[in-house]
Amino acid sequence: MKFDMHCHTSEGSIDSRVPIADYVSVLKANGFGGMLVTDHDSYGGYYYWKKHKKEMPDDFVVLKGIEYDTKDAGHFIVIMPDDIRLHVLELRGMGVNQLTRIVHKYGGILGPAHPFGMRSSSAMFCHKMKVHTDLMYNFDFLEGFNTCERVRSNLLARELAARYDLQCIGGSDAHRIKYVGTAYTDFDTEITCNNDIIESIRTGGVAAFGGKERYYKKEHNKRNWFATTWSFKAFNRSLGILYTPYRKHKIRNIRKDNPQHKNRGTV
């Protein structure tokens, strides 16, 4: 069953130009069975699809994910169980250690997105990950193919996954319609919900992944310029600080919760 595991929709990501209805139509027409919506620090795209499900193409699986901006280790793709929605995951700025503890406490999985991609938002260009490489053992998978990255970046990602025995996924990371469906992840079992995909990744169910990198233009180098990198980091850190009081409140509620006895609902 073929999925695009990194999808940004216009309903959930301010930098995407692709409505989720177009995402579904294009992927379905190209033989995909589903997609993981991974908007930036938002479940907006997924819940838009859920609200308008009757108007969307049928026989296609749309799953709820998120691309979370940590304060110290770049972007992470997070997949939570079907019955869990943590509002704290929509408040960027947690450190990677705290993010990992919360996701695992509630039965979710996570892994670095484009680990050797943009210097401003990729795990292996962050000081935290360079110094504490053993953190890789805490993750459940990593993105081994991303359409937006160079061939070498994806190769390094696959080598990193092999070193730490992690499952790889492939995703288009598409923000424009022409890149939708240019990457894939094949699963060896039928996937109908978030719980299925979590179980499949945990048990080695990724049968194949890959795709086609976009044509890399000289202008794409701008995203790794010093000024671009640090401007984004400053923006991300500023928003993270702004959200700190509300995020701390949500985390306190999470600490009070015991998922062994209460594993459904919203925090």
Could you give a quick summary of the protein structure above?
The chain has helices at residues 20-29, 44-51, 96-105, 127-131, 151-163, 194-202, 226-256, and strands at 2-7, 34-37, 61-69, 75-79, 84-85, 109-112, 141-146, 167-171, 183-187, 206-211, 265-266.
Structure description:
The protein has 267 residues and is α/β, with parallel strands linked by helices. It has a single domain (2-215, 222-266), classed as TIM Barrel, CATH 3.20.20.140. The chain is 32% helix and 20% strand. It has a seven-stranded mixed β-sheet, sandwiched between helices. A two-stranded parallel ribbon has the order 5-11. The longest helix has 31 residues, at 226-256. The mean pLDDT is 91.
Which short descriptors sum up this protein?
267 residues, alpha/beta, TIM Barrel, 7-stranded mixed β-sheet, two-stranded parallel ribbon, 7 helices, 11 strands, 20% strand
Set out the fold topology.
Elements: E1 2-7, H1 20-29, E2 34-37, H2 44-51, E3 61-69, E4 75-79, E5 84-85, H3 96-105, E6 109-112, H4 127-131, E7 141-146, H5 151-163, E8 167-171, E9 183-187, H6 194-202, E10 206-211, H7 226-256, E11 265-266
Parallel strand pairs: 1-2, 2-3, 5-11, 7-8
Antiparallel strand pairs: 1-9, 3-4, 4-6, 9-10
